[in-house]
């Protein structure tokens, strides 16, 4: 990275250049200028990350420089070099996002620390900007895919968006929906070859999406779900339109489609409830042989009151408990699935067990479980569950299989947590003297800061700030006991460049000042 020094006094600019060339961390190109205009031309062309400039110079002042550099808007960190008499004047640099100040005469170590902080801050912001740009590029190129993932999440995952977050998501994905209904379409697939079934599913998908570009659609489990934007709140008017569409589709293809309609809503967070409504409609159509358009509002009360068993939702819930390793919840959920399928045919029950297995294998492929464990899990399903013909035996083996998976996942989590906490403590021990925070630690272990904060609290029972402060104070106490360093030097070595703040923190923990602690410990 390029670092620029500007001071109209050649002796000062040359001295600062030598200091920075030998004292800064990392590889940097340091350039010194005595003429502000020449420096400005260089800055405009080369875009250095850190600029150390005197305030009072003939012609273009440091304030003028800061203003023009700020207008270039590439995130340069500006440090002002100023005398005591100019400090009030220097405060105006805040308007131009000045990073820090150095007072004359310059302390070499303080100057090096200041510019190292500026370099770290510049790198951090550049990294953030680059990551944001990567995300924006991906978002633009894959907007349709992201829209589809969003729709899938609305239908099949617990919705955790607040009203404000939901509106923001709609804006980002250009989803112009105010009022809507959920519409589901399916057809009789019995005895239909797989190729023919795939063909008709594709035809239905294309028919609706080409004819009604404003809808958001998702095909899952043989059902074509649609979020259908509409301002029409009157059910019969909306259904009349859908009935015409159903007849048009029937004329185009030899399919007797069943269409189900939910209630009207203006809140996308209602979608999972509305999905249940259309599934109840389809269940009613299947039980009664009714293939006409069905609305939830017109269903008999006994169908509305019955709690519809959504196998997809049940398996999703099972995997969520499996991820957390909660065996009690795993067994309860598995028993619920067994109970709900008790009256179904043997073939249906076996299909559900196979579906659970397939979803679990998909889940396992996305977690860092070792290959040997994954192979054993797969083999045990094939050898112990897949081959069982008796329903109760298969169900019992399924429970033991889930327990075995939960134990493997728990063991993996324990190993990961032990390694992670060791990484965190090693980083703190190696860097406690630097101006580090939770963000630095999170970047080092490649995790989200919010996650690391929760993880440290769960693993140690203490906050990150408490652990760092305790480590620094222990190092300070050791230096106070065993060295002749000045207290100012000790404070800097343990990560407190401000002596007053160090004294306040130390006194708050020890109920005595650093000087008092040193005096007392000399007797021991």
UniProtKB/TrEMBL annotation:
Modification sites for 4-aspartylphosphate: 54
GO molecular function, one term: DNA-binding transcription factor activity
Tagged with keyword Transcription regulation: yes
Keywords: Cytoplasm, DNA-binding, Phosphoprotein, Transcription, Transcription regulation, Two-component regulatory system
Predominant localisation class: cytoplasm
InterPro entries xref list: CheY-like_superfamily, Homeodomain-like_sf, HptR, HTH_AraC, Sig_transdc_resp-reg_receiver, Tscrpt_reg_AraC-type_HTH
GO terms for biological process, alphabetical: phosphorelay signal transduction system
One cellular-component annotation, GO: cytoplasm
Compartments it resides in: Cytoplasm
Domain HTH araC/xylS-type stretches: 422-520
Protein role: May play the central regulatory role in sporulation. It may be an element of the effector pathway responsible for the activation of sporulation genes in response to nutritional stress. Spo0A may act in concert with spo0H (a sigma factor) to control the expression of some genes that are critical to the sporulation process.
Name of protein: Stage 0 sporulation protein A homolog
Organism: Blautia wexlerae
